[in-house]
Design goal:
Layout (H helix, E strand, L loop, with lengths): L9 H10 L2 H11 L6 E5 L5 H8 L3 E6 L2 H14 L3 E5 L12 E4 L9 H9 L5 E6 L3 H4 L10 E3 L2 E10 L4 E10 L2 E10 L3 H10 L4 E5 L14 E6 L1
Parallel strand pairs: 1-2, 1-4, 2-3, 4-5
Antiparallel strand pairs: 5-11, 6-7, 7-8, 8-9, 10-11
Helix pairs in contact: 2-3
Length: 235
């Protein structure tokens, strides 16, 4: 069973819901709103951070995530805010059929799958435009990587991390312990590390003909040590 199927319970989800500043979300949504198309498929949408804001700006949104807790949160927020957005529990390896114009995969979920599954995921995307937001691209991640990280407390949840790097398989493995009072959740995440060129080759193989690489939602070009890779591919 893939690691992520039972990782994203309430404690880690609460931690990450509080972790991203609203200014970062706004910048990402501003970037996404420059792309054409009315219907957006948000793959691994989590608690709806992007999907809800896109819906608030008039896009039709379908969000899919493996975490039932995250989907329940997103559905509740959409109802509370009076937004029209559909959220479904589902695995990114078996996405529902949609006629979305644009598919987005934000927040590093692109690196969750092994290589063959990643290729199959890309091949299964039917949207004309795809956006991949990927903080584990080798040119971004490896130059400043450090195994040791201090515990962080965000949203009332403390996350402790023990990291290792699997050189033979280019995988960043993190053993997490989330605590809030007496509550404890442990889980291990696996992020596959690809170079930007490797990602581009897989995206091209999946049938996309035009690829743009950005290092930030402000449209800066992707370079060595850019904070992340934002890839926009069009058929």
């Amino acid at each position: 069973m893939p690691w992520y199927t039972d990782f994203f319970t309430e404690l880690p989800n609460t931690f990450w819901r509080a972790a991203v500043p609203s200014e970062s979300t706004k910048a990402e949504i501003d970037f996404l709103m420059t792309l054409p198309g009315d219907h957006v498929l948000d793959v691994a949408c989590g608690s709806g951070r992007h999907a809800l804001e896109l819906a608030a700006r008039g896009r039709r949104v379908t969000g899919v995530d493996v975490s039932a807790e995250a989907i329940a949160h997103a559905t509740g927020e959409a109802a509370r805010r009076g937004l029209t957005a559909a959220f479904h529990v589902g695995d990114m390896r078996a996405l529902p059929a949609t006629i979305a114009d644009t598919a987005i995969c934000m927040g590093n979920a692109f690196g969750y799958l092994d290589h063959d599954e990643t290729r199959a995921f890309l091949a299964g995307l039917t949207a004309r435009t795809v956006v991949l937001d990927y903080g584990f691209a080798a040119e971004s991640f490896l130059p400043g990587v450090a195994l040791e990280e201090e515990p962080l407390t965000i949203g009332g949840v403390t996350a402790e991390q023990v990291n290792e790097y699997d050189v033979a398989r280019s995988r960043w493995i993190t053993h997490f312990t989330f605590t809030r009072g007496e509550e404890v959740h442990r889980g291990t995440s696996v992020q596959h590390v690809y170079t930007a060129a490797e990602v581009c080759r897989m995206v091209t193989e999946a049938g996309f003909g035009t690829i743009d690489l950005y290092g930030d939602p402000d449209g800066a070009p992707y370079e060595l040590r850019s904070p992340r890779l934002i890839l926009v591919a069009r058929r």
